[in-house]
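User: Please fill in residues for this 543-position structure.
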């Protein structure tokens, strides 16, 4: 992750560092103009074709001379061989019509063309054979061509002595040329700028005339391109690399717009971009130098091809190193991306696994919630049953209290009766009252009714469950709160009263009667040995 962050920061900072020198907007325009070279060349070819078609129709030498000069101007910086052909044809026409001035002018143009591509001896012979005639413009052009010849020759010589000699001769030629430089001569300001560079070095004056040329000349003209190139050279000599690059780019753009194949600005721009470094600029440098080489080959300039051939290996080497560096960066990025993809796959697998566990846990939780809901429902039901049971127990307690209160009241009444009878000396009457069976029957009936109702409310299923223990079940009473004597005896056994004497005392029976009832029920039992124990387990949960 740190490596990716470092690479990202480097990619952001490097363009920012280059932006202080490289004017990317100008270079972008340069790329766009280069992309439109085909359209520009097509328009030039249309003009050339129109002129060549017109040649076939014209027979008059003077008219042919004008067309050949126009074709020479189209080809002069576009294609050397064709330019040479048409300037020679123009010279022939000039001689045919007997115009020595035109013939000399054609010879000077031819010499200028030859010196441009490195045919120095042939150019020298032509210039030496020219007899100076014509107006100021012709004389200026003649001496300026000599200046160009010696300037190119000085660049060609590797020996400093010969190079200095040529530069001095070039300077003297320019001094002579300036004598004939009038304002009506095309490119007047540009030539003055050149004068203050090569003859009387003065950067301020030179830049003044060069910038004046840029303001007056069209961008697609040769004077605009040459002035911009000269300004770039001035800024380079003074160490201003930013402006050097800007005006070198403008010169290269102008060369493309004017369809100049014999150019120098584009290859110089390629070398400068290569020195700046950076993937983007090295790619541009490689593209520009290859275009410059193709232009030089198209123009058929051996001198330019040699110059570019010397620069090409350095730029191509830098381009190849840039590709290798880019490949290494891409390999690193590929490795990092692969690692990130693998990490993402691992995390995805982990997330899917966790999601699966989460789904299982959610399902278990849902099941638990369902069970809890059922248990809560069951608990609510049990609570309701418990409330009912508590209510029943409260009823039994109330019944017990009522019975106790009733018997206490009756006991008090007996006490009062006894006291009253004894005081009245009515012992016989008291004895009759005590021995009366009516009192016992009333007490027994009251108790059994209350007992049956209370017990069956507390154990509503007792009679059914008791019948399930018997082979011959007892019929259920008509009233749901009434029991048979046998059932009542086993109801007391369910409550834990197991002694026959205790049962007899509670139910107002004799012990023998209780024994007989118990024996009768046992005879009907499915399991006689465990009947009473089974009865004690009936209705274990009070509902």
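Assistant: Residues filled in for all 543 positions:
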């Amino acid at each position: 992750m740190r490596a990716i962050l470092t690479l990202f920061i480097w990619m952001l900072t490097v363009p920012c560092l280059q932006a202080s020198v490289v004017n990317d907007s100008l270079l972008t325009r340069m790329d766009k103009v280069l992309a439109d070279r085909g359209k520009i060349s097509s328009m030039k070819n249309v003009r050339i074709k129109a002129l060549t078609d017109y040649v076939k129709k014209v027979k008059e030498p003077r008219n042919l001379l004008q067309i050949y000069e126009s074709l020479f101007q189209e080809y002069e910086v576009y294609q050397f061989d064709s330019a040479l052909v048409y300037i020679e044809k123009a010279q022939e026409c000039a001689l045919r019509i007997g115009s020595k001035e035109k013939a000399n002018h054609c010879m000077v143009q031819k010499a200028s063309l030859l010196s441009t591509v490195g045919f120095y001896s042939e150019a020298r012979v032509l210039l030496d054979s020219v007899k100076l005639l014509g107006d100021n413009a012709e004389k200026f052009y003649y001496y300026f061509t000599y200046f160009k010849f010696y300037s190119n020759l000085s660049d060609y010589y590797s020996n400093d002595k010969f190079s200095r000699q040529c530069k001095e001769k070039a300077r003297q030629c320019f001094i002579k040329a300036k004598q004939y430089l009038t304002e009506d001569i095309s490119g007047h300001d540009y030539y003055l700028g050149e004068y203050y560079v090569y003859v009387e070095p003065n950067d301020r004056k030179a830049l003044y005339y060069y910038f004046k040329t840029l303001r007056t000349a069209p961008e697609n003209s040769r004077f605009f391109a040459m002035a911009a190139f000269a300004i770039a050279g001035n800024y380079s000599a003074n160490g201003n690399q930013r402006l050097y690059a800007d005006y070198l780019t403008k010169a290269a753009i102008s060369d493309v717009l004017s369809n100049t194949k014999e150019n120098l600005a584009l290859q110089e721009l390629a070398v400068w971009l290569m020195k700046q470094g950076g993937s983007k600029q090295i790619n541009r440098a490689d593209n520009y130098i290859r275009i410059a080489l193709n232009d030089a080959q198209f123009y058929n300039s051996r001198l330019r091809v040699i110059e570019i051939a010397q620069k090409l290996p350095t730029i191509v080497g830098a381009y190849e190193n840039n590709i290798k560096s880019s490949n290494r960066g891409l390999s690193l990025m590929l490795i990092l991306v692969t690692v990130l993809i693998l990490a993402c796959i691992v995390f995805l697998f982990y997330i899917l696994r966790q999601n699966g566990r989460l789904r299982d846990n959610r399902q278990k939780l849902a099941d638990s919630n369902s069970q809890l809901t059922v248990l809560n429902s069951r608990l609510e039901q049990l609570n309701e049953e418990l409330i009912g049971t508590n209510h029943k127990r409260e009823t039994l307690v109330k019944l017990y209290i009522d019975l106790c209160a009733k018997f206490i009241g009756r006991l008090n009444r007996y006490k009062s009766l006894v006291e009253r009878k004894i005081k009245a000396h009515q012992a016989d009457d008291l004895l009759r009252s005590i021995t009366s069976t009516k009192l016992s029957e009333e007490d027994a009936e009251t108790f059994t009714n209350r007992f049956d109702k209370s017990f069956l409310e507390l154990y509503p299923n007792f009679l059914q469950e008791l019948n399930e223990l018997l082979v011959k079940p007892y019929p259920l009473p008509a009233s749901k709160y009434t029991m048979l004597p046998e059932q009542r005896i086993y109801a007391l056994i369910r409550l834990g009263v197991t002694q026959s004497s205790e049962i007899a005392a509670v139910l107002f029976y004799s012990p023998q009667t209780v024994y007989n009832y118990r024996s009768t029920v046992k005879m009907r039992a499915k399991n006689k040995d465990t009947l009473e124990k089974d009865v004690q387990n009936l209705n274990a949960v009070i509902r």
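For context: The two ends are 71 Å apart (CA to CA).
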